[in-house]
Write a structure and sequence with these properties.
Blueprint lengths: L5 E4 L2 E6 L14 E6 L5 E5 L5 E4 L5 E5 L9 E6 L5 E7 L4 E5 L5 E5 L18 E4 L5 E4 L6 E5 L5 E6 L11 E7 L6 E6 L4 E5 L5 E5 L10 E3 L2 E6 L3 E5 L5 E5 L27 E6 L5 E5 L6 E6 L2
Antiparallel strand pairs: 1-2, 2-25, 3-4, 4-5, 5-6, 7-8, 8-9, 9-10, 11-12, 12-13, 13-14, 15-16, 16-17, 17-18, 19-20, 20-21, 21-22, 23-24, 24-25
Length: 310
């Protein structure tokens, strides 16, 4: 272990696995936005390049790629496990302003068009969904993070139910709700919103009632990955944050408080990057062994694997 780069804290130590995720010569990554892991610890990376989904095994061996229809629109990326054990991928495509559900091999099962809300959207007020998640009952929630800062609620078939939010900083209002996920750690499911430009997490009921804020230890939170009692958040300002079951800080991973202050960030010279420091984390997931995978918002992509030591 002494020859490896180790990051983390006493309870959460990780070895940086350099060079993880080798691509064939004919595939080049664009901005790496979302990252997911399935029940067999296969890693799905969503990026803005041509074959926009690239799949690896946990050792970083390339398995396959697909997703040309999402080229240029990669953003929110979510793997949902149904109660019957089936796994599906959900995409929030910013370029096409659409939500798409697929199989793990890319077969399209559902498309959700922009909500029919002329009171919220028109030629000047755009709808630009940035993330999507699914509740235990199959209901689908979409965050309009780059549009009008609303959350939209649909049933499992994609039929519209309700919306809430809108721009602002008061309880229930949002400013770039960039990421959205379902918290299942308590007795009742809750929605966690990465209220990024307000620099906080905002927690709602599944019906859209504001419940509370999580405002400490945030630095432009992008999205969420729940693993056991913990939640992992990529902070765009150059770190990954881990919170405990009470949303209190456990540790920051790979923190570099100088990266986002550099000229031309996030597309910094390659000489700047270090394997044990992040620049612009955008997506995170955790495999069955507790290993962490981080994708960064960088023009030619960057994916890091952190191997859990304790």
């Amino acid at each position: 272990m002494s020859d490896q780069l180790i990051i983390g804290s006493a309870s959460h130590l990780y070895a940086v696995q350099e060079g993880w995720g080798q691509l064939p010569a004919n595939i080049q990554l664009g901005y790496t936005h979302g990252i997911c892991v399935d029940d067999e610890d296969r890693i799905y990376v969503h990026h803005t390049g041509k074959e926009s989904v690239v799949v690896f095994d946990k050792e970083g061996n390339f398995l396959t790629s697909w997703g040309s229809e999402f080229e240029g629109g990669a953003h929110g990326f979510y793997l949902h496990r149904n109660s019957d054990g089936l796994q599906h991928l959900y995409f929030a495509d910013t370029k096409r302003a659409s939500i798409v559900k697929t199989t793990l091999s890319g077969e399209v099962l559902l498309r959700i068009s922009p909500p029919d809300r002329p009171d919220l959207y028109d030629v000047d007020r755009k709808y630009v969904p940035t993330d999507v998640c699914v509740a235990p009952n199959g209901d689908i929630y979409v965050s309009d993070g780059y549009g009008q800062s609303y959350v939209h609620h649909y049933n499992a078939e994609g039929l519209y139910i309700r919306s809430w939010g809108g721009p602002g900083s008061e309880p229930g209002k949002l400013n770039s709700p960039h990421g959205i996920s379902v918290n299942l750690r308590g007795e009742t499911p809750e929605l966690y919103i990465a209220d990024r430009s307000n620099n906080r997490i905002q927690v709602f009921s599944l019906e859209g009632e504001h419940l509370r804020f999580v405002e400490h230890n945030m630095d432009l939170p992008c999205s969420f990955y729940f693993y056991g009692d913990e939640v992992y958040l990529p902070d765009l300002h150059s770190r990954v944050t881990i919170l405990d079951k009470n949303d209190r800080l456990i540790t920051h991973l790979g923190e570099d408080q100088q990266a986002y202050k550099q000229q031309d960030w996030p597309n910094l010279p390659k000489s700047y990057f270090r394997p044990d420091r992040f620049s612009s984390p955008h997506g995170v997931c955790v495999d069955s062994q507790g290993n962490v995978y981080v994708s960064e918002w960088i023009s030619d992509g960057r994916v890091t694997k952190l191997v859990r030591q304790r």
